[in-house]
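A reminder from the course coordinator: this example appears on the midterm review sheet, so study it carefully.

Given structure:
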């Protein structure tokens, strides 16, 4: 699977090799309800060459840290991570409203901050699907049905206005051609992937890619935009993948 480089975003977490903790967390995040016996988690870990003891240790430490609950050998996500699961799934297909041509403009007004806080801010803005027009100035079409999050209220002044050439502005802010090319590649991948180990990576790549879909109004998208196709194929894929993973874990 070869993806173009045009939509790589250094402000989003990179795809890392799976650790025992990653395997446990990723497996449970794909289940409804998100709980499995330790034996199933161990079998999944074996797919990646992770020793049984390593999976057990990771699960135990996650219970201590409050990430997991445990009862009678069955591990489940804590309430905090269940909420994260819900937010993650909702973020893949954000609700939109009819677009009236308006744009939201967020201008950073916060005082100088340490590097870590600036990086966290940039990541938050990207998750909100804003693009940076210039240093400290972020914008996007006002078509997302979302309340202003704390990151905007606390660090920005937000304005709403119009642009004389929104198509040109979109072309400046987003590389739609590269995003679409990668989306089509990922759609083909989830249609054909059968291997459980490859399925983990495919799922991680699709989720990351959908998080940088600008979710623009239809009026500003090219013809044959593949966003809906990718979401539809991923939804079908993840249902089948979760069932196959459950069967494998119980086998």
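Designed residues:
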């Amino acid at each position: 699977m070869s993806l173009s480089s045009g939509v790589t975003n250094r402000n989003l977490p990179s795809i890392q090799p799976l650790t025992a903790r990653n395997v446990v967390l990723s497996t449970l995040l794909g289940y409804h309800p998100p709980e499995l016996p330790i034996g199933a988690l161990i079998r999944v870990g074996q797919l990646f060459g992770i020793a049984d003891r390593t999976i057990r240790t990771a699960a135990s430490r996650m219970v201590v840290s409050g990430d997991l609950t445990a009862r009678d050998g069955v591990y489940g996500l804590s309430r905090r991570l269940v909420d994260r699961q819900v937010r993650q799934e909702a973020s893949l297909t954000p609700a939109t409203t009819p677009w009236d041509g308006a744009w939201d403009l967020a201008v950073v007004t916060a005082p100088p901050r340490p590097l870590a806080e600036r990086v966290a801010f940039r990541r938050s803005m990207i998750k909100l699907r804003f693009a940076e027009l210039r240093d400290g100035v972020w914008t996007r079409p006002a078509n997302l049905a979302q309340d202003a999050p704390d990151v905007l209220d606390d660090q920005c002044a937000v304005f709403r206005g119009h642009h004389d050439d929104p198509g040109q502005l979109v072309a400046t802010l987003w590389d739609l051609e590269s995003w679409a090319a990668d989306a089509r590649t990922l759609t083909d991948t989830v249609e054909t992937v059968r291997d459980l180990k490859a399925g983990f990576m495919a799922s991680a790549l699709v989720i990351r890619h959908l998080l940088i879909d600008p979710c623009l109004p239809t009026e500003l998208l090219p013809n044959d935009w593949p966003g809906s196709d990718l979401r539809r194929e991923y939804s079908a894929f993840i249902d089948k993948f979760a069932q196959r993973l459950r069967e494998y874990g119980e086998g």
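The first helix runs from residue 20 to 29. The chain is about 50% helix and 15% strand.
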